[in-house]
Specification:
Layout (H helix, E strand, L loop, with lengths): L21 H11 L4 E5 L6 H12 L7 E5 L9 H8 L10 H9 L5 E5 L5 H14 L4 E6 L8 E5 L14 H4 L3 H14 L9 H10 L4 H8 L7 H15 L9 H14 L3 H9 L9 H7 L10 H10 L4 E5 L2 E5 L2 H13 L3 H20 L6 H25 L2 H10 L1 H7 L1 H12 L6 H17 L3 H17 L3 H18 L2 H14 L6 H17 L3 H18 L2 H18 L2 H18 L2 H17 L3 H18 L7 H16 L1 H12 L3 H8 L12 H4 L3 H11 L4 H8 L3 H15 L4 H11 L2
Helix pairs in contact: 1-2, 3-4, 4-5, 4-30, 7-9, 8-10, 9-11, 10-11, 12-14, 12-15, 16-17, 16-18, 17-18, 18-20, 18-21, 19-20, 20-21, 21-22, 21-23, 22-23, 23-24, 23-25, 24-25, 25-26, 25-27, 26-27, 27-28, 28-29, 29-30, 29-31, 30-31, 30-32, 30-33, 31-32, 35-37, 35-38, 36-37
Amino acid sequence: MARSRHPLGNLPAETTSFVGRRRELGEVRKKLTTARLVSLVGPGGVGKTRLALRTAADLGRGFVDGAWLVELAEVRDGALVTNAVLAALDLRDQAGMKPLHILLADLRNRQLLLVLDNCEHLLGAVAPLVAEVLAAAPKLTVITTSREPLQVPGEHVIPIPPLQVPPADGTAPLAQLRHNEAVILFSERAGAASGSFELTSSNQAVVVALCRRLDGLPLAIELAAVRTRVLSVEQILDRLSDRLALLTGGGRAALPRHQTLRATIDWSYDLLTAAEQMLFRRLCVFAGRFTLEDVESVCTSNELLTKGTLDVLSALVDKSLITKEDVRGLACYRLHETLREYAILKLRDAHEEELLAERCLEHYRTTCLRSADQARYRLVEWLAWAELEIDNIRAVLQQCLTRGDSARGLDIAASMKYYWITHGTTESLGWLDPLLASGEASPVTLVRAYYLRGWLSVLRADPAAARPWIARAVATARETEKPALLSESLSMAATIENVAGEHEMARRYLDEAEAITPGVDDFPARIELVQSRAIHAIFQRDLATAGKASLEGVRLSREAGDLYQLEAMLRNLGMLGVMSGDFHTANSEFNEALRVARTIDNRLAQSYGLAAAGWYAANTGQARAAAQLLGAAEALGTQTGADIMGPLVPLLTQAKEWAMGALGSSKFEAEFKAGNRLGREAALRLALGESDQVELAISNGDSGLAKRELEVARLVADGLSNKQIAARLFISDRTVATHVGNILNKLGLNSRAQVASWMASSNH
């Protein structure tokens, strides 16, 4: 039975109906038949994002690697645009390669549709990035939304107007009005808000007048429609007309559309209670998503009590002024960018900007410091929190840099250690280095920051750069008499010297750590010493000592719940199995390490685990699986910016040679490329024995299908008719029929259902 196939990408599900835009959708589709960069340009609130998402959803299945959304509204620093794209594409900055190089390496051979949303405040960074990725990735197509064009070569600009409004004379019959875009949007949203609204002959005139008064702007229409819960359409029109008349001196002249939207938001804001107004304007202090706990900590006061915050927040959601979404079962909230800009103005008018910025900074500093020591013991939950809050944390870090507040900035940056080493190795240097330049922070924070900076250099395969940082950590811990931190820093220094090839120096650091640690009741110091001891023994080829230390590390990590260290200790044991020739024990330890790496979503460790699984497959006569696993390991390494290092390198070279000898060069290359395309989750299932051999990816060379035939086969599997496929791929029905016939002949199949089964089993 064929498994269901889910579309690739990260497009969010639509939570409300999509209204109209048939002409614009057709124009975008037509442009994309020849253009690789299409920019949807228009004012805030005109509906650019919804149009881009609907287009991407419609066309995404025609792209081998799907459609992907990059939300830039919450990115405040142009230097982090590339990081935002990496995160959206589920790539990781986890080693020494620059984020741009990771991105280009990944996109080079992928065929996907990339949507960059809300570019206007980052044009200086977005424009050159788009130009560079389009030049490097010939199969890439980009849609941007912005208030102005990117102005890069090859850009096709489509101005996005407001929704179509009905004629002013009121002669349009009711049946015709029910097909008008602006009227449909108002009627649907009003019906959802009030539960009873319906367009009738008795209210059609006032609805027409309201839609025209709002210039067909979707955001303005939605803000007005939600008020039908408590006001009639006539009341809404009267109150809005009064507000708009103030801007035209009481005349009937048309306003510029941005003023119409501003007046509508003003009107909606004026209808809020004092508490709702206060909370709404204060919410703009969050750069990204925020939770109820964030709001209660940052936005409450004597006038807005914590006890009633949820009720006020719920009221703002009900009035469509903020958006609620669920992230891993947690309720989160965000502001539409246009409404955020308005809230910022209101916050300034209330003279609360500095107060709220300070409270936000202190909230995240306190939260980060409070969670830092416990992060390693609940890493899965902590990383989920960090991913949710990272835009807010970046904003307060930038605030610290701007203010010259390095002490609090380092408190935050050093506390985010596990996020940086699993998500942002290169990004972290952009925060730590300027903050550390001043050297101002508490002794504990300075030691942790110096230690982290050294560790990050090790992850970047640069032990020479790590040395001065870890030396500062050792000196500061020694000077301020922090024995636990001194022990931990000495153990890391020993590891760095071993990696650098200075084993005698490593021994001296290790001896001092061994002398200090027994008198310190501190798990981080103890586990770091055990790891350093194991690594030193491995470099000395003292397998007995290395094994004893690693087993102790596994026990300690399990007892403490430290999954990051548990994975590292298990990987040590796997490597020791390889070095001693015990292949099956090695595979068992590597297998468990890979399961832990999957649990904590450590992509760098996963790439090592896939490589180890490929090595084992080659050594046990599974040449095809070996080739694919080695290909998958290479792909995942590219997606984290890392190369395999250490003792595994010669073993993987040997594994490739064995698999190539068994399969032949051309067959090996085809299977290796199939592994490159396998996808991370599928590769992990294969490595962990969770998929059958029949589920191994089938390469293009096996199927004999051309690129266009694969695209058609994918759409056949999705259940599309020849006519639907023709419309999706902009080819004729006859051409589709020819492709389907070729597919059936090449695969030796008799029906479209069999094509669907083949696509499901081949992971294409």
